């Protein structure tokens, strides 16, 4: 249960930080933004579905 919530938190933090930096501080190139955002979303999804496989 703890691993699941850690993955979800890390994924959300990555996604929010990248979006906030891109919109308000500095425009991040798509070559960097898209893979990192996808990685954050994948972590969130792994966290959600990790418990269902048990």
Automatic annotation (TrEMBL):
Indicate the transmembrane segments per the record.
7-26, 32-49
Judging by the UniProt lineage, the source's domain of life is: Bacteria
- What keywords is this UniProt entry annotated with? Membrane, Transmembrane, Transmembrane helix
Q: What is this protein called?
A: Prepilin signal peptidase PulO-like enzyme (Type II secretory pathway)
What organism is the protein native to? Blautia caecimuris
């Amino acid at each position: 249960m703890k691993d699941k919530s850690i993955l979800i938190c890390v994924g959300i933090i990555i996604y929010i930080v990248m979006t906030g930096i891109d919109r308000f501080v500095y425009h991040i190139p798509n070559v960097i933004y898209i893979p990192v955002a996808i990685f954050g979303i994948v972590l969130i999804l792994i966290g959600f579905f990790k418990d269902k496989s048990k």
